[in-house]
Design brief:
This protein has 110 residues and is mainly α. The protein has one domain. Helices cover 70% and strands 0% of the residues.
């Protein structure tokens, strides 16, 4: 790798770290606000979709050797990037236990 590529790679790595830092700051800012955290997750998912459907597809390899290199990188670096949604069962498991109707409304009824 030549010196220019190394420098560009370091600059890109720094940019990625800046993004990670900003996202962590946003998470900290949203602590205690489930709606804000959900909005953050939705925004990250939208950015993922925009990059995947835009710049990534436009820059896909146009020859076998470059395609092989890309696939090899995907395989060696942990697979295809995917934003997993929380499963409903996992979501429900985090909810507090439901209170009995008599506890909620009192023992005298409605």
């Amino acid at each position: 790798m030549n010196q220019s590529k190394i420098f560009e790679s370091e600059k890109f790595s720094d940019k990625l770290q800046d993004i990670v830092r900003v996202v962590h700051e946003a998470v900290a800012f949203c602590q205690g606000d489930t709606i804000a955290l959900l909005a953050l997750l939705r925004q990250l998912e939208q950015l993922h979709r925009e990059i995947r459907d835009g710049a990534f597809q436009e820059n896909l390899p146009n020859n076998r050797q470059a395609l092989y290199s890309l696939l090899k990188d995907i395989e060696s670096e942990g697979g295809w990037p995917y934003i997993e949604r929380m499963r409903l069962q996992e979501f429900l498991a985090n909810l507090p236990p439901e209170t009995a109707p008599e506890e909620e409304w009192g023992s005298g009824g409605v």
